[in-house]
Amino acid sequence: MASSNQQWSIEVPSTSRTPDHPSGGRGNIRRSCDPLASPVLGAFGVRTLYEALRRGRDINPLGPCLGFRATSSNTGFATPFVYASYGECVSRVDALAAGLEKGGEHLLDKNEDGMLLMGLYMKNCPEWVLAEHAVYCLGGAT
Prior knowledge:
By secondary structure, this protein is of the alpha+beta class. It is about 30% helix and about 15% strand. A hairpin with a 5-residue loop joins strand 5 (about 110) and strand 6 (about 115). The mean pLDDT is about 85.
């Protein structure tokens, strides 16, 4: 059993930013105490969420991907999960991305660093994930 004072990470000196920094303030960056440790940057050739969704579609297009539980209006209890397949989700993501690219001139703007950004304000739902992946299709970040 690990002792209560064992450190799992250390601070990298001189990496903090003050609150008046253009990107906002933050404390020092932390790294693993093990100098030989390196992060795992992906598995099975997948390094991003964009690639993970498409890999799921390639492996099992009819497999369950995103699900939700509705609430019964009669009893107030949650229903069993209803899932959309990987194939269905990727099709919806691609259609939304095409719409954002074609008609969303002011929905997706580049910041001063040239990054494509989109702010999403929605309830926690499958549509939020689909919108996030649509932005990823266009090379953006949410």
